[in-house]
Design a protein that fits this description.
16 helices, 9 strands, 374 residues, alpha/beta, disordered N terminus, two-stranded antiparallel ribbon, seven-stranded mixed sheet
């Protein structure tokens, strides 16, 4: 956003100068107009005849009206010129703000904003904006990204505190873009394997973080990742950042490979341990942050193998997965889904992360051998 400031400022400044020079000659010509304007704005009745000595007042008020006209006229033309000039820059500026995750205060006027009504979002929301406007869509997009970042941060902190040294590697079910796996693997040093049909997509900020770690870990002459590892990791990284840092992409990929960030573009089903035995056996715990359709499969597989697991259920999908509780009633609500999952094993515990936005109930199990050793 800083890079756009000089160009936008100079563009608007040129528009103001052009508007002022274009309207300056007409200021003297419109000297008589303020008299009628002040008469219309005056609260006195129109039929009252003018007094005998109006000239001093008219001459005294004329400069004021003329100066007001000379000031207001360039302002309107400057506004029009700045609007027409800056209109072409709007798309690129908003796109850059969205990609670089700049706060919404750069997009809206704080004087005309009110707090967002949806808790726990506290971002400013323009009261006059239509929901389909670009600014509103950008605000909602940034709001969702902040909420997701808060969920990831809270869940990672809880995982590290709860499982401690037993959290040596994880299987991240329905990890999506890989935000949770990146935080655990790259930032915390815990190898993570993402199980999700969607490809991993590392944001521009996280891609820069990889290059920063590579610069501090390896020298420029060190060999980076090559072959399949380089091609695989390169698909995850932000292409614009990689284009600028092309000579060091191999080093950034080497950081991801050596720290154990893996992506398996497959869904989690009951046949996963047989299809991917090495990935399943090497995972010390199975985790899922809003894993949606894979929630019940995550719990069933972990219980069958005696592995520790932790999941934050979200959607129930009652029509896609018809379920019945112990009393025979259908499982359709969120609370019923939580009770249904927790009833699968007596060792399943429940925790509530108050600081996590959205669904924040964690169902977890410490593993088959935990009870006998603790």
């Amino acid at each position: 956003m800083i890079a756009f400031a000089p160009s936008i400022g100079s563009t608007l400044g040129a528009g103001s100068l052009a508007g002022a020079s274009a309207t300056a000659p007409s200021a003297s010509a419109s000297a008589s107009a303020p008299t009628s304007a002040s008469a219309l704005a005056s609260p006195t009745p129109v039929p009252v005849p003018a007094p005998a000595e109006p000239s001093p007042s008219v001459s005294a008020s004329a400069p004021t009206s003329v100066s007001a006209a000379s000031v207001s006229t360039p302002t309107s033309s400057s506004t029009l010129s700045s609007t027409s000039v800056s209109g072409s820059l709007t798309d690129s500026v908003v796109a850059s703000v969205t990609r670089l995750e700049v706060s919404d205060s750069n997009l809206h006027n704080p004087s005309s904003e009110q707090p967002c009504a949806a808790p726990p979002c506290e971002c400013p929301a323009p009261s006059s904006e239509h929901p389909s406007s670009r600014a509103e869509r950008t605000r909602r997009h940034n709001c969702a990204r902040r909420a997701k970042k808060a969920r990831v941060g809270e869940f990672v902190a809880w995982l590290v505190e709860t499982f401690g040294a037993r959290l040596t590697s994880v299987l991240d079910v329905a990890g999506g873009r890989g935000d949770l796996a990146f935080e655990l693997c790259i930032e915390r040093g815990i190898p993570a394997t993402v199980v999700d049909p969607a490809p991993l997509r590392v944001s521009a900020f996280k891609t820069k973080r990889l290059f920063s770690l590579a610069a501090r870990t390896f020298a420029d002459t060190d060999p980076g990742a090559t072959g399949d590892n380089l091609a695989r990791v390169r698909e995850w990284l932000d292409p614009e950042v990689c284009a600028v840092m092309e000579p060091y992409v191999g080093l950034a990929a080497r950081v991801a490979v050596e720290r154990g960030l893996v992506s398996l573009r497959v869904p989690l089903d009951m046949d996963f341990p047989a299809k991917f035995p090495r990935d399943w056996e090497s995972a010390a715990a199975v985790i899922g942050l809003h894993p949606d359709q894979a929630t019940e499969a995550l719990v069933d597989l972990a219980l069958a193998a005696g592995k520790p697991f932790a999941t934050v259920p979200c959607c129930v999908f009652p029509d896609l997965f018809p379920r019945e509780a112990a009393d025979g009633s259908p499982v359709r609500s969120y609370d019923q889904f939580l009770a249904y999952l927790q009833a699968k094993d007596a060792g399943i515990r429940r925790a509530v992360l108050d600081a996590m936005p959205g669904c924040n109930v964690v169902l977890y199990h410490m593993g088959a051998g935990y009870a006998s050793t603790n």
